[in-house]
Amino acid sequence: MSLQDFWDVFVLGVVLGSLYAVIAIGYTLVYGVLQLLNFAHSEVFMSGGFGGLIVLTVVVPAADPSGIQSAGYVLLGMLAGAALGGGVAYGLERVAYRPLRRRGAPRLVFLITAIGASFFIYNLAGKIFGRNASRMPSMYENKTLFTLFGAPINVTQALVVVSAVLMLILVDFVVNRTKLGSGIRAVAQDPEVASLMGVNIDKVVSRTFVLGGLMGGVAGFLYGTTTQVWYTMGFLPGITAFAAAVLGGIGNVRGAMLGGMVLGVVEAMTVEIWGDAWRYVGAFAVLVAVLMFRPTGILGERVARTA
Amino acid sequence: MSTQLTKDGAAQGSSAAPALLELRELHVFYGAIEALKGVELSVAEGEVVALLGANGAGKSTTLKTASGMLKPRSGEVLLRGERVDGIPSHELVRFGIGHVPEGRRVFARMSVVENLQMGAYRLRRPDPADMDRVFTLFPRLAERRKQLAGTLSGGEQQMLAIGRALMGKPELLLLDEPSMGLAPLIVQQIFDILREINEQGTTLLLVEQNASQALQLADRGYVLETGAVVMSDDASELLTHPRVRAAYLGEAAE
């Protein structure tokens, strides 16, 4: 691989990795507050793709849009993705998980419910929207914007990375600097004591799902823009992002970001070197290797949960 | 077994105003196991009340029921005469209850300051003076304000747990075994500060294994055995009572 190839592939990896990072946040936040592996998060992501697709199909005309219109369409697509993603995440918590929490169900039941909810949602989407993949209407002309180390960066790639980075900064701010964030962190560490401080656990859990859902939804829209939108589109990115969350140290927001980037770049490199058939092998080999030496993930907590 | 020795606790504070905290006929269950079998207890404003008893007697359960962490199957929890049982703990803090849980349970991955801020979570506008007050009571915490709580010593964590509860401006502070696992010197410090907190106007309900320390601080005390109150009296009376001395001060009394 020449140096130029390296940079080209690196750019692809960063684009993919920033999406994984955003999705991984959804897994890690929910895991933090509930110790739940919310496998249905991949369907939250998928819903975001359809949210953007539906709205833009209605709004975007066939003619080439002007620059300002393009920006408007992109923004609208993100909002639609966020709205549907956040809505599905909210509904998921209310309908599937909260009743289990009320009854103090064992953790295995949560896991099975998550898997069941995932199957239910993507099959429902397949039933409603059909089994074929749909292309996002063209919101802008996807030309090359600039080159970085000789690697051309097109509009979509710039859009994905910039919006992902903005979302990561935003969520980092919310978790570390706002009242909701302190509620989330307190519930993650000791829900019982958090409620003694006046934290309404139900509210915090619900908002955590929505926060993860908003971002997962936008990621779904962005992913749909880079490829297409279809009812099982959430599966592989979802699994990979989940692996990214584990790699970074599940429960740790910055770890999820790091894990996502690492897996994205490793995946792109693997495809370049060994071909597309090996796509997920490299990334998951890295995951296994890292976990062998650091079972808590790269930035995982070593402090005991409670005294 | 149940020799109600002298004064009933409720009778003591019984002028016109209702007691700050009153527990009536509390029955609390963990599944099929009855942990509290009709506990009756009252705490008047400004008092320090100690709750003594062996392991498993129901002391922590009593505190948890008072702060809304557990729901009684029957019986009443009254704050200033108002029934509050069934109100979840995150809402009950608004009634002025602070609970320092057993084992301290500070937020290990948050700094000292963040822990204190969590204590003020219920307040819309936290008062900066509250944190100054905590740092005045516990100068050790001021020195370690940026340190992660998980890296503090046991005594410092206990101070932090108490400080955190004070940040919510409680009228009634429930303390579950504040001396547990601490060196005697630190225990003495903690109890001195508890006295100071009480003198500043906070009512204390204290669960303790260290009966002699607790009774020296307390105005009154209750003794719990297997989920029921078997004695209640002035702390000074309990300190000299032969049965209390034998059962709870055996090792502490020199």
From TrEMBL, chain A:
Keywords: Amino-acid transport, Cell inner membrane, Cell membrane, Membrane, Transmembrane, Transmembrane helix, Transport. The keyword DNA-binding does not apply. Its main location: membrane. The keyword Cell inner membrane applies. It is a multi-pass membrane protein. One of its GO terms (cellular component) is plasma membrane. Signal peptide: none annotated. It comes from the Bacteria. GO terms for molecular function: L-isoleucine transmembrane transporter activity; L-leucine transmembrane transporter activity; L-phenylalanine transmembrane transporter activity; L-valine transmembrane transporter activity. CDD domains: TM_PBP1_LivH_like. The chain crosses the membrane at residues 6-32, 44-64, 70-92, 104-125, 145-175, 204-223, 280-300. PANTHER family: BRANCHED-CHAIN AMINO ACID TRANSPORT SYSTEM PERMEASE PROTEIN LIVH, HIGH-AFFINITY BRANCHED-CHAIN AMINO ACID TRANSPORT SYSTEM PERMEASE PROTEIN LIVH. This is Branched-chain amino acid transport system permease protein.
TrEMBL record, chain B:
CDD domains: ABC_TM1139_LivF_branched. SMART domains: AAA. PROSITE patterns: ABC_TRANSPORTER_1 (PS00211), ABC_TRANSPORTER_2 (PS50893). Signal peptide: none annotated. One of its GO terms (molecular function) is branched-chain amino acid transmembrane transporter activity. Residues 21-251 form the ABC transporter domain. Keywords: Amino-acid transport, ATP-binding, Nucleotide-binding, Transport. InterPro entries: AAA+_ATPase, ABC_branched_ATPase_LivF/BraG, ABC_transporter-like_ATP-bd, ABC_transporter-like_CS, BCAA_Transport_ATP-bd_LivF, P-loop_NTPase. GO terms for biological process: L-amino acid transport. It comes from the Bacteria. Belongs to the ABC transporter superfamily. This is Branched-chain amino acid transport system ATP-binding protein. It comes from Streptomyces harbinensis.
